[in-house]
Design brief:
With 225 residues, the chain is α/β, with parallel strands linked by helices. It has ten helices and ten strands.
């Protein structure tokens, strides 16, 4: 059954969602959504290996090409620095889909933390929309530690989930999906078109400094009113 998502979060009992990537980000999102009984397909380069190591609610493990084709809503959670090549190679499978990109494209420092932006003067979100004109790209959840994506209420100050995208319907579906992850409507801020992703993607540059001072404690960039 295909679910209809909207700004009010109304839906049929089961949503079909694919997640590309099963690392800390993709794995956390998959466990949270599968725990709510949604139909999850997790796409990786080695699905058998990923399935053998999987801990959490039941999900389907598949090659990335199969996962990208399996659902009307696809979450991209692979490394941002290689995302453009990865997703461009899935153009046919992503045609007509909503693509939620939660990654940040950066040059990696020797310690693995993000350094400079991989696409200065623009953004990965814009690059993806340009490369995938028949896919509705939405950028969100890229301004926080991965654990906050699925537990926003755990922070002492309400976090903000920024959204950037050219298609209002796609952003409505993403907003409803965020609601499934515990995001209250007032915590979600639609910034406008996909070009606004360059602002939120630039926020990643503060992360290594925050982590150096505070460690991997959950945090998010928030708009406090």
């Amino acid at each position: 059954m295909l679910a209809r998502l909207d700004w009010k979060g109304t839906r049929s009992p089961i949503m079909k969602i694919s997640i590309l990537g099963a690392g800390r980000v993709g794995g956390a999102l998959a466990r949270a959504l599968a725990g709510k009984k949604h139909e999850l397909t997790v796409g990786t380069l080695a699905p058998a290996k990923t399935a053998a190591a999987w801990e959490g609610p039941a999900v389907r493990h598949a090659p990335v090409e199969v996962a990208a084709s399996a659902s009307p809503l696809v979450i991209h959670a692979t490394p941002g620095d290689t995302a453009l090549g990865t997703l461009t190679g899935l153009r046919e499978q992503l045609q007509g889909k909503v693509l939620l990109d939660v990654s940040n494209a950066t040059v990696r420092l020797p310690n693995g933390l993000p350094g400079g932006l991989a696409h200065p003067g623009t953004s990965l979100g814009e690059k993806l929309q340009e490369a995938l004109p028949e896919t509705r790209v939405v950028k969100s959840l890229n301004t926080m530690l991965f654990s906050v994506m699925t537990a926003p209420g755990a922070l002492s100050t309400p976090p903000t989930a920024f959204m950037s995208g050219d298609d209002d319907g796609a952003k409505g579906q993403v907003a409803a999906l965020l609601g499934e992850l515990g995001w209250r409507p007032e915590w979600i801020l639609d910034l406008g078109g996909i070009e606004t992703a360059r602002a939120t993607e630039a926020m990643i540059l503060v992360v290594p400094h925050v982590i150096r001072r505070q460690g991997f404690a959950p945090f998010a960039v928030s708009i406090v009113r």
